[in-house]
Model the fold of this input.
Amino acid sequence: MDIEKTDIEDIRRNVEEICAPWEGRPGNLIMILHQIQNRYSYVPRRISFEVAKRLSIPLARIYEVITFYNYFKLEPPGKNIVSVCMGTACYLKGAPSLVERLGQELGIKPGESTRDKNFYLQVVRCLGCCGLAPVLTVGQKVYSNVRPEQVPGILAEYRQGAVV
Ligand code: FES
Done:
């Protein structure tokens, strides 16, 4: 869905559908933003603008929350989301060098997508499989005990869309 081409009435309907159940509930802004990101895979500016109007809050308040939590994305993420676990076990077993190698291979930093929108790189907290550290995921697929020299081979699986 191209949000820039979506009719404003459709946007308002979507915003109403997402906001109404959270009316007057504590922490509603974060829950609303979660739902928006689940639906659109990021938080589009046009949606934020309508949410600010709907909740009668300044747009800046929404951006404060989005930029505070690095979970929220301001741009549509690349097709393949590469997540590197930075939980303690993974960190100690070399996750920072995986992030560095991914950055070199893809030419991006965590929180960014490649120009061709094929990859989005992010760091995440413990994925719950610490015995396999260091761990990274591409989409739903988990790669364990990853060494930096394996990174190009892993990315190659997704470069020609040849996901196995
Ligand atoms: S610390 Fe990485 S899976 Fe737990």
Residues 24 and 55 are 9 Å apart (CA to CA). Residues 28-40 form the longest helix (13 residues). The pocket of FE2/S2 (inorganic) cluster is lined by residues 85, 87-90, 126-130, 133, 135 (CB under 6 Å).
